[in-house]
Write a structure and sequence with these properties.
Helix content is 44%, strand content 17%. It contains 6 helices and 5 strands. The protein has helices at residues 13-17, 38-48, 52-56, 80-88, 91-102, 113-133, and strands at 4-10, 30-32, 63-64, 73-78, 136-142.
Length: 143
């Protein structure tokens, strides 16, 4: 069974947490992307030159904002530093990191870098829109 990971922007944790049961259906834009913990962490590390451990060391990385014992879905907050790194990444930077990112263990070495690059460009657009609106970025994760 796979996990559905949908990124979206919201004004605050309470607003984003309301998406836990039905998903972010009332939010726009949204993007089916990668999971917001390890895969987003490895992307952040590649974009910033930090180690994965440095990126994920703080308590704010992929902070769970909904009940941990929810039956099948959760919403996590992504730090402003992540949103900034994705929003500001140039096409050249995205092209530079997508190859190594596609080879990380979490992609099982089988993800097409060209498809991931398209998704990264869309994620960048979502991050830019989120910033322009003064929102935070979140990820709805569902089994």
């Amino acid at each position: 069974m796979g996990t559905i990971n949908t990124s979206f922007g919201a004004t605050d944790d309470a607003t984003a947490a309301a998406a836990v049961d039905d998903g972010p259906v009332s939010f726009a834009p949204v993007l089916d992307a990668v999971e917001a913990t390890v895969q987003a962490g490895t992307l952040m590390a590649l974009l910033t030159g930090q180690t994965y451990e440095e990126v994920t060391a703080g308590p704010s990385w992929a902070r769970l904002i909904t009940a941990p014992d929810h039956e099948s879905a959760w919403v996590v907050w992504l730090p402003a530093e992540f949103t900034e790194a994705v929003a500001c990444a140039s096409d050249e930077k995205l092209a530079e990191v997508v190859g190594p990112w596609s080879q990380t263990e979490e992609f099982w070495g089988g993800e097409d870098p060209a498809e991931l690059l398209d998704m990264l460009r869309e994620w960048r657009g979502l991050a830019q829109t989120t910033q322009q609106r003064g929102e935070n970025m979140y990820c709805w994760m569902s089994l």
